[in-house]
Amino acid sequence: METALLQLNRPLCSRGKMELKLRTNMAAFSQQTVQFNGATRSRVFTCASSSSGPRRKPKRSIAPKTRDIYVKGAAPVSPQEEIEEKPSQTSNNGKSRTEDETEPSIYEEEDRIEKPDLLSFLDKQTVHVGSRYSTISNTILEDKQHIMESSKVKSAGDDVRIEEAWYTEEPMQEEKPIVEETAREEKPKIDPEEYRRRVLILAEENVRKGNICFVYPENVEPNQEIEIFLNRGESALRDKPDVQIKGAFNGWRWKFFTERLHKTEFNGDWWSCKLFVPKQAYRIDFVFFDGGNVYENNNSRDFLLYVQNDMDESSFEEFLVEEKKRELERIAQEQAERERAEEEKRRREREEEARNADLAQAKAEVERKKEVLSRAVQLAGTSSSGLWEFEPSGFRGGDRVRLFYNRSSRPLEHAQNIWLHGGYNNWCDGLSLAEKLVKTDKRDGDWWYADVVIPEKALILDWVFADGPPQEARNYDNNNFQDFHAIVPNSISEEQFWVEEEVRIFKRLQQERKSKEEAAQRKAERTARMKAEMKERTMRAFLLSQKHIVYTDPLEVKAGSTVTVFYNPSNTVLNGKREVWFRGSFNRWSHGSGPLPPQKMVTAENGTHLKTSVKVPLDAYMMDFVFSEREDGGIYDNRNGMDYHIPVLGGVAKEPPMHIVHIAVEMAPIAKVGGLGDVVTSLSRAVQDLGHNVEIILPKYDCINFDHVQDLQFQRSFEWGGTEIKVWLGKVEGLPVYFLEPQNGMFWVGCVYGRGNDGDRFGFFCHAALEFLLQSGSSPDILHCHDWSSAPVAWLFKEHYMHYGLSNAKVIFTIHNLEFGIHQISKAVSSADKATTVSQTYSREVSGNPAIAPHLYKFHGIVNGIDLDIWDPYNDNFIPVPYTSENVEEGKKAAKIALQQKLGLRVADYPLVGIITRLTVQKGIHLIKHAIWRTLERNGQVVLLGSAPDPRIQNDFVNLGNQLHSSHADRARLRLTYDEPLSHLIYAGADFILVPSIFEPCGLTQLIAMRYGSIPVVRRTGGLYDTVFDVDNDKERAQAAGVEPNGFNFEGADASGVDYALNRALSTWYDARDWFNSLCKRVMEQDWSWNRPALDYMELYHSARKS
C-alpha cells in the first residue's frame, strides 16, 4: 500500500514559506492531518496518510456562542493497557489508493472554512511570549482554563482522557469518563512491539523531514485513544523542561484539556501524551506550551486535527443544545432539592420554635391554673354542715358517690326540679357533670341527692344547683356567686396532677396549632392554584389578543417544535399586497443563528389568513417576527415598531433579566396618597415575578410608615446639590427600595404633597436619584418615572447623564393624570424614549393635547391592574366569610348582612349599591347624588364611603348625609372619611359599585369590585370603557378584547345616562336573580390583576431598548 506524506522542509514553528514534498514509503499507515488553523495548503502538514475512511465536509464557521466550558482531563492508564489500532481501510473495491488515486485531501476544503469573526480578529492580535508570538485568543484560552479550574467545574478525568506515554515510570491509573454515553468501542489489539515499531518509523520519518508533530493512529476517530507527538527540539519549546498540551474540541468550544507531555525513547527530541477523543468530536484544536507564557502555536494559527465522524458543526450545535437542556434539568433538579432541604430545615426550625412556644404557654397556663385553683381550694371542704355532704366521705377519682343537698331556706326551695351542674379543678373542662337530684325521705329536712362519678383527675369538685338541666335552667343556687367546691380526699398527688395537666395542655396546643397550620396550608395551596390558573388563562388571552391579525398553531409555542404562523394582512398596512413575506428570528432578534431566511407565505385553508411553518430551536425563549410585502423588504408590518413576539415554552435558554429602576414620589403602602403609589408597587412586583430585577428610588419622608419596611439599613451617603444625601436600603412588599434623605430637611415636612415648593422638592429628588445611580455605578436598562412629580428624570437624564455614565438606560414616562403639572409632563414626554398612560381609551382621549400630540409615535396606553394579594376575598380578614367564585353567593350574602349591621341599616334582602370614591368634580359628584336618590326610589340601599378635599363639597355631602339619615335611615348611609377595612366590606357586601366619573384615566374601583363579585355600573370614559363591557351592548367589543360582558355602562354626563345603566342593573337584580348571580361568578373569574399589564410593559421596555 502506498500513502502520501506531505513534508515541510522547515519546522512548523518557523515563519516564512514552506514547501511540500510527496513520499510514498509509508504504506502501512492511513492518512490523517495535523492542520494549522487558517494556513494555506502550502503550509499543511500531514502526520500520516491514507485516503480511506469517511470524510466530514467542514461547514462554514459561525460566530462563537457563550457556553458552559468544562475543563477535562484524566490520569494516564497503566503501562499494561493494551494498545489498540483500527485496521487499515481501503477503497476502490478493496484496492488501496495510489498516489494518483488519492481522495481529495480535506485540506483542499480548508479554503472554504472561515474562522469565527471574533477568533479571526483575536488571532491577528499577537503578544510577544518568550521567543515566540502568542495570540490574544491563546491568552483568553488560558484565562478561560484558569477560570474553569478555579470555579471547581468537573475536574480532570470526567470527559477527556489524556494519558502519559506507555513508557512512563510514574504511577498511572484509569478513570472512566463520566459524560460518554457509550463505552469505548473495542479496537483490534496490536502487539506493543508492533506499536513501537510503527511509531518509531513515524518518528524517524518526521525527524528526517523536519516535521515537529504527528499523531498515532493516523485515522482519528471518535471513542478512540490517540497519541500526539511533538518534536520539542524543533519547536518554540526547545530547551524547556516542561512541555504541556492545551486544547479543546470542535473549534475551541468544548471540553478543554491540559496535560503534560513526557519524553519518549525515539530518535530526536520527541515528547508525547495520550488523549481520548469523545464521541461528539469532529475536530481537535490544540497548542503546546511550557506551563507558562511560551507557546508553540503554529505561528499563531494553532494546531488542528479532523476527526472522521458523522458529527458536523450543525449536528454538534444540536448536541450542545441537548446537553444544555440536560444540564439545566440537572441544575433545576439540584436547585429543587436544595430548596426542599432548605424548606425542610426552615420547617423544622419553625416546628421547634412553635414547640418551645407551646411548652412555654402550657407552663404559663399551669401556673395560672395553680393560682386560681389554690383560691378555690381555700373555699373547698369535705362537707358543709346542714347544706351538702358526700357519702362515703372518703373517695377518689373514678368513684361513684352520692351528693346530698338540703334546699331548705335556699334559692331553690320552691323549685320543682333540682339539677347538679358540675365540673372539677375550678371548672378546668367547663361544665362536665349534669345530674338530676332525687328527694330523699331518709333524712330530716328537705334533702335531695344525686349519684355522681368523680372525674379521674379531680383535685376538687366544682358545682352549682339549678332548677333545670343545662341550657334550660332559670334559677341557681351558686353559693352566693362563689360556687360550691369539695376537696377530693384521695386524689392523685398534686405534683403528678400538674405534670399531667401541663402535658395535656401542651398536646392540646400542639393539636390546635397543627390544625391551624394545615388549614392555612390548604388555603395557601388553593390560593396559589387559583392564581396560577388565572395567570394561565391570562397568558392564553395574551396569545389570542392579536388573533384577528396573527396567531400560531399550536397556540403555545414549544422549543424544538415546528409551528405554523397564521397572518391576516387585511387588518394591517399590508392589506391588498400581492405577496407577504415572513421575516423572523428568536430571542428578541439575538439568536446565534441569526435571522431566518425570508419565507413567502401561502394561503391558509380558511381563505382569510396566510401561513408559513417555522422550526423553533431548543434554545429559544421568544419568537420574533414581522411581515413585509417583498422578499427584499418594502413596506413592513412591524406592529407600529413593537414587532410581534410570542413566548417559547420549554427552551433550554431563559430570557436574561432586565434591570428596571422606578423613580417615584409615592409607593404603597408606605407613602401612598393616590393610585400612583399602588401602581408603582404592584407593577414592580408583577415585573419582578417575571424574573426581572426591579428597584425603586423614593424620598425618605419623615411620615413614611416604616412598619412596612423590612431590613432598613443605612447604605452610604454622597454629596450633591450643596448638601449631604443619605441613602437607606430596605424591602417593601419584597421589593428593594432606596430611600434618599437630603440633610437639608427637604422631606422632613410631615407630608408627601401640599407644600408650596413641591416642584422644587421633587425636582431636587429626581436629580439626586440620577446622581445616586451614577455615583453608585448602577447601570439600569430602564428608568421608569411617573407623573409630573418625577417627570424631571426624563429630561435631566438626557441633558446630564445619558452621555456621562448612564448610557445604557432608556427612559419610560407614565402619565397617571394629565390634569396636574402639564409643563413638566410636556417636557418629559418629549425627552422620554417611550411614554405611556394608564389605559388605551385615555391615551386616545388626550392624544390632541399639545404635550402629547407631537409624540404619538411613542405614546402608548396600558391599563392598570390590581394587586391580588391585597384585594382577595378568599384571604380577606375584613369580611366575615372568605369566598371564591365557587361560593360567591354565600360569601356576598354574609358580607351584606355584616355591612348592614355595621352601618345600622335594615338587615333585609335589598339590592345594595356601593360608592367608594374621592368626592371631586372629576368623579361626577352630581351623578352620584342623583344615583343615590334613584336607588332609593327603586327600593334599594346605598352606602357611600369617601371624602372631599374641597371643604365646600365635603359640607355639601355632610348635609346630604343628615337628610338621608332623617328620611331613609334604614336604607342609606354616607361615611365621609377614609376607612380601609370598611371599603373591603363594601366591595364584598354590595351588589353593584357605581363609578360615574366625568373622566377616568384608568380607575381601580371597578376592577376591585369585579374581584369581589360586585357588578360595576360606570360611565364610558378612559379606563372604565376599556375594562367594563356592557352586558347588553358590548358583546362584540368584549369578544375582541378576549373577555365576556361584565357590567353596565352609560354615555353622557346627565341624570338620564345614569338612569339608563342603573335601572337596567337593578331590574336584573329583581327580575333575573339567577342570571345576576352567574354574572357575579363570571366577573370574579376575570383577571384584572397585573398579569397582563406586566407583559405589556415588558414588551414596551424591550421596544425601547431596541430603539
Describe what you observe in this structure.
A hairpin with a 2-residue loop joins strand 37 and strand 38 (633-637). This protein is α+β, with helices and mostly antiparallel strands and 1107 residues long. It has 21 helices and 54 strands. It starts with a strand and ends with a helix. GO terms for molecular function: alpha-1,4-glucan glucosyltransferase (ADP-glucose donor) activity; alpha-1,4-glucan glucosyltransferase (UDP-glucose donor) activity; starch binding. This is starch synthase.
Short description:
Its EC number is 2.4.1.21. With 1107 residues, the chain is an alpha+beta fold. It is built from 21 helices and 54 strands.
Topology overview:
Layout: E1 5-8, E2 20-23, E3 31-36, E4 45-49, E5 71-72, E6 83-84, H1 117-124, E7 126-129, E8 132-135, H2 136-150, E9 162-163, E10 189-190, H3 192-209, E11 213-216, E12 224-231, E13 244-249, E14 254-260, E15 262-263, E16 270-277, E17 283-289, E18 295-296, E19 303-306, H4 313-379, E20 383-384, E21 388-391, E22 400-406, E23 419-424, E24 433-436, E25 438-439, E26 447-453, E27 460-466, E28 476-477, E29 484-487, H5 494-544, E30 550-553, E31 557-558, E32 562-567, E33 581-586, E34 599-600, E35 602-603, E36 610-615, E37 622-630, E38 633-637, E39 644-649, E40 659-663, H6 675-689, E41 693-699, E42 710-720, E43 723-732, E44 735-742, H7 758-775, E45 782-786, H8 787-790, H9 792-801, E46 810-815, H10 822-831, E47 834-837, H11 840-845, E48 859-861, H12 888-903, E49 912-916, H13 925-937, E50 941-945, H14 951-967, E51 972-975, H15 980-989, E52 992-995, H16 1005-1011, E53 1015-1019, H17 1022-1027, H18 1035-1041, E54 1048-1050, H19 1055-1071, H20 1073-1085, H21 1091-1106
Parallel strand pairs: 5-14, 31-39, 40-41, 40-45, 41-44, 45-46, 46-47, 47-48, 49-50, 49-52, 50-51, 52-53, 53-54
Antiparallel strand pairs: 1-2, 3-4, 3-19, 6-10, 7-8, 9-16, 11-12, 12-16, 13-14, 13-17, 15-16, 17-18, 17-19, 20-21, 21-22, 22-26, 23-24, 23-27, 25-26, 27-28, 27-29, 30-32, 32-36, 33-34, 33-37, 35-36, 37-38, 37-39, 42-43, 43-44
Helix pairs in contact: 4-5, 7-9, 9-10, 12-15, 13-19
